[in-house]
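In the lab's daily routine, each protein ends up as an entry in a very long ledger. A line of letters takes care of the sequence, but it says nothing directly about the fold. The fold becomes a row of whole numbers, each drawn from a learned catalogue of backbone shapes. The protein below has been through that process, and both of its lines are reproduced in full:
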Amino acid sequence: MSRLNYHHLYYFWQVSKSPSLTEAAEKLHISQSALSAQIKQLEHNLGVALFIRQGRKLVLTDVGRRVLAYAQDIFNTGEELENFLQKGTASTNQHITLGVQSNLSRNFIESFIAPLLQSDNVSFSLSSRGITDLLNGLVNHELDLALTNRPILSESKETTWQNQLVARQAVAIIGPYGEKPPLPFPQGYSDKKWIVPGKNTDIRSAFESFCATHQYYPDIKAEVDDMAMLRLLARDSGYLSVLPAVVVKDEIESKQLEDYEPIPQAFESFYAITVPRKFAAQSVLDLINTAMTTYSVEP
């Protein structure tokens, strides 16, 4: 392959960030035809297609998204170098992209991103996705970090997932405020109905083991995979539920719900998933370390 032309790569970077080729050309002060020719020359030199045309829009290919990730690292670092040479200090402004598993507790997500909201130098994009879309986003460098409730195993040599446990939330029996049975489980629970997480989850397995230990057979009214929906049903149904107290912290504080008692050895774990990158965003590393410190998780 011929030597990479960074001038062409810079044009590619600007086109990728712009709503249209026309706007990119205006920003770069060249004609649209000249800019198009430069991009085609870059594709020719690299031997890959970076864009495909959909209607009047240019859309990045899978390879194009990966090339964009490298281009962002290269030119963001170049801008920091320019700033350092001109002002004597490196720019600390960063933008990061975060993905969160769609069924995670919104309260936990809010607490996780709180440091970003308080930072003057970091902006971020946040999207809620299923696991498959999260992993694709990481592989294609669309996401800097994905937040999930389970680690991801690497199934091939091509992709290595970096899993960092950032928090563990204790799971408890949650019920209507003021209706807690006076005696410990299972006494006083014989006539209770339950709304529980779906099967094949760590919380459900821990709850079933807890019930088996006490020879208690729960009357399960509903199984719910989504924590946001489980929160609403716990609040509005009048039934008992099994979930981390953080999920319903607002309802507990307002005395709509009550934490009856913890379930021994039952936790919901939260993982920050990343892929190896040569230039990891410092704000992402800081976010992970802050969460681990906040929730007292050992590295």
